[in-house]
Structure formats: structure tokens, C-alpha cells
Design goal:
6 helices, mainly alpha, 0% strand
Length: 127
């Protein structure tokens, strides 16, 4: 499992690059909400491509392991999101929780769902 824990780290850089693209390119053209929604979709796609490549190098041992990988990656992602978002990016706690409000068009929850289930789905598709 250690290699899959370490394999989560590049996902940070993928997410940060996606966020920079959202802020620098998409937000000025689409508006903040639509940029958020589109970047949610692009992040899900980028994570899928990354996991597909990762699992071609390091194949999970079992379907059970992919479920554990997904849960670990979910935990790491949420912890990182709040620590980085608040202490590095300087967002307020309320701003961070705002991204979970699907009734206001915020779609971040779908990234978390994807991070959790994607290892299993991608592993199944590859096999």
C-alpha cells in the first residue's frame, strides 16, 4: 500500500495546476461558478488519466485493495484541501465548506466521490 500512498502526492500537483488554470483562464471567460463546474469535470478526467497510467505501472493486488486505496486517497484529499486551502491559500473555513454546497452549483463533492471510487472502477476497466 505504501506505493499507492506515495502515488497520491502527484494528485496534489494535478489539482493545483487545474486550479491555476481555472483561476487564470476559465474564470475570466466563464465566470466563477461555471469555471468551478468545468474545472471539476477536468479534474475528474485528469485524475482518471493519471490513475489509468499509474495502474499500468503498479497494478493493485485486488479489488479490495482498490477500495482501500480510494478511501485513503479520499482521507488525504480532504485533509489536504482544508489544511492547504486555509493555511496556505488563506481561504476562510466558510469558503472551504461552500464548495460542498451542491444546491448552489458547487460540484467539489463529485471530485471526492471520484477519488474514492475511481481506483476500483479503473482497475476493473483495465482488467
Amino acid at each position: 500500500m505504501w506505493k499507492f500512498i506515495v502515488a497520491w502526492v502527484p494528485m496534489i500537483f494535478i489539482a493545483i495546476a487545474n486550479g491555476i488554470f481555472r483561476e487564470k483562464v476559465l474564470a475570466s471567460r466563464l465566470g466563477e461558478l461555471q469555471a468551478h463546474q468545468l474545472s471539476t469535470a477536468t479534474l475528474i478526467l485528469l485524475f482518471a488519466l493519471y490513475m489509468w497510467g499509474l495502474f499500468s505501472i503498479w497494478e493493485p493486488a485486488s479489488a479490495n485493495q482498490t477500495l482501500r486505496i480510494g478511501l485513503l486517497w479520499l482521507l488525504f484529499t480532504v485533509i489536504f484541501e482544508f489544511i492547504f486551502g486555509h493555511y496556505v491559500a488563506g481561504h476562510s473555513w466558510s469558503r472551504l465548506f461552500e464548495d460542498y454546497n451542491i444546491l448552489k452549483g458547487r460540484l467539489w463533492i463529485f471530485v471526492l466521490i471520484w477519488v474514492t471510487i475511481a481506483p476500483y472502477i479503473i482497475n476493473q476497466l483495465r482488467n
